[in-house]
Amino acid sequence: MQLKSVNGGATLQVSEAAFGHKFNEALVHQVLTAYRNAARGGTKAQKSRAEVSGGGRKPYAQKGTGQARAGSNRSPIWVGGGKTFAAKPRSFEQKVNRKMYRGALRSMLSELARTERLLVTDGIQLSEPRTKLLANQLKQWSLPSVLIVVEAQDQKLALAARNLPHVEVLEVTALNPVSLAAYDKVLMTVGAVKLIEERLQ
In this model, does residue 125 exceed pLDDT 90? Predict the structure, then answer.
């Protein structure tokens, strides 16, 4: 498997074990859903009829009023009453095995490489941490929406990219399926590609 370079016509030979897998849509969907669910707060809380204050006595007589029978003014059908199926704080986390998670990353990276949406570069050199410099560089490479993956923290690059709405910079250790799926193209440094190969062998 070879990846195209944005710096010219050169290509980078990469491992089939990490970048040559068949796309497994069901696995990718399951891992994406689990990853996003794990970020949910799950803090929603409502009160049931047992928890709403008031409603201690029968609001009016059982018979003779011409109205429907009522035992409490905190019934769910009354204004101010409790919720019938009150939402309670809960966790939305789903268990995903390490083998499944890595398999989904391999599948996504392989599909990106197959569709030529995964590109490599020797590095992004910025003289200073300015957004305009990075924007001009990405414009030359025709990358309006891109995830940039680097092997180690790059302060200049991070500062230059943080104000661009469709650009994100991640280290290899922070690479995740949601970010891979969110951008049109993925740009990796050669060092990042080597680290990913080591992790996904």
Answer: no
Give the residue range(s) of CATH 3.40.1370.10 domains in the chain: 2-41+96-199
DSSP 117-157: -EEEES----SS--HHHHHHHHHHTT-SSEEEEESS--HHH
Least Cα distance to 118 among 48, 26, 40, 188 occurs for 188
Assigned architecture for domain 2-41+96-199 = 3-Layer(aba) Sandwich (3.40)
pLDDT tens digit sequence for 50-67: 999 988 899 999 999 999
> How far is 115 from 200, CA to CA, in rounded Å?
20
Distance from C-alpha of 107 to C-alpha of 200, rounded to nearest angstrom:
11
- Please name every residue paired with 147 in a beta bridge, in sequence order, or none if there are none: 168, 186
* Average model confidence (pLDDT) across the chain: 91
Q: Are 172 and 195 in contact, with CB atoms under 8 Å apart?
A: yes
DSSP SS3 for 8: coil
Of the chain, the percentage scoring pLDDT greater than 90 comes to: 78
